[in-house]
Amino acid sequence: MMRKTMLIALGLWIAPVLPALANSADPSGVWLRDDGNARVRIAPCGSNICATNVWIKDTSGGEEVGDRLVLTLKPEGADSLKGEAFDPKRNRRFAMTLTVKPDGLSTRGCIIGVLCKTVNWTPAQ
């Protein structure tokens, strides 16, 4: 009975995220940022997706292990997710596009629709 209850609870936790990923590539995993300064784990968190820092080489820019972005993304085509990212540490929201590529990920975040930055990610070893 306990095992069945746990499986149902796990299903309820994962189910809201699955529709967003059903028709697009899955970005889940640990990724190394193109500047080599961060490793991030992308995984379901509640009804969203979270990108959580699991390793930071240089913390002088204010990034720390455990910092996360809460991503509210919806499929856009076969390989992209688009929506909003929320940074609870800085209380900032910005537009986000995440594209899964054969050799990694690409993220593009924009604040006020004009200030944008694209970052490329490779699978972490």
Question: What are the SSEs and their pairings?
Answer:
Blueprint: H1 2-14, H2 18-22, E1 29-33, E2 38-45, E3 48-56, E4 68-75, E5 80-87, E6 92-101, E7 104-111, E8 115-123
Antiparallel strand pairs: 1-2, 1-8, 2-3, 3-4, 4-5, 5-6, 6-7, 7-8
What is the number of domains? 1
Q: What is the highest CATH level, the class? A: Mainly Beta
Topology, number of strands: 8
Number of helices: 2
Q: Overall pLDDT, averaged?
A: 84
What helical percentage do the residues reach? 10-25%
The 3D shape can be described as: globular
Main sheet properties: 8 strands, antiparallel, barrel
Mind telling me the C-alpha Rg? 15 Å
Strand content: over 45%
Q: State the CATH architecture.
A: Beta Barrel
Quickly give the structural class: mainly beta
CATH topology (level 3) name? Lipocalin
Strand order across the biggest sheet? 1-2-3-4-5-6-7-8
Q: Strand-and-helix sequence, N→C?
A: HHEEEEEEEE
Uncertain stretches of 5 or more adjacent residues: 1-23
Q: Termini separation (Å)?
A: 38 Å
Give a description of the structure.
By secondary structure, the chain is mainly beta. It has one domain (2-123): Lipocalin. Helix content is 14%, strand content 52%. It has helices at 2-14, 18-22; strands spanning 29-33, 38-45, 48-56, 68-75, 80-87, 92-101, 104-111, 115-123. The protein has an 8-stranded antiparallel beta barrel with strand order 1-2-3-4-5-6-7-8. It is globular.
